Amino acid sequence: MLITGGNVNDTTMMTAVLEDIRVPRAGKGRPRTRPDRVLADKGYPSKANRAWLRSRGIAATIPERDDQIAHRRKRPGRPIDFGDQQQARYKGRNVVERCFNRLKQWRGIAMRSDKLARNYRAAICLAGTLIWVKTGAR
């Protein structure tokens, strides 16, 4: 999790967030730092993000914005396939949106009334932990 100012675009922070990911392995060994696939919404499809993912061998399920689709129709280029398999994968993204919804039910998180970023981050961690415990630690 990275805390930024409200005026920072999501697209610019995608690589920084993905570089901070550490997933522990079931057995021995270093934690995984590269996911198999990234599911993101229409706020993330930039050439730089797609090139960064491609260079690391990470598959992406990111729908294109309408302006990008219109731009592709004007110029020939490599189309980005968002067929039936991609749409089926993208349906799992609602879990992330529901998580944001649950977190923003906490008034302090929704309003971001904390003055310091560390306090806001602590509130998100506390809310996330309480939500996790309340839902039965699934």
UniProtKB/TrEMBL annotation:
GO MF annotation list: DNA binding; transposase activity
TM region(s), chain numbering: none
Matching InterPro entries: Transposase_11
Domain Transposase IS4-like: 2-130
Any matching Pfam family: DDE_Tnp_1
GO biological process, any: DNA transposition
Top-level lineage group: Bacteria
Protein name listed in UniProt: Transposase
Native source organism of the sequence: Microbacterium marinum
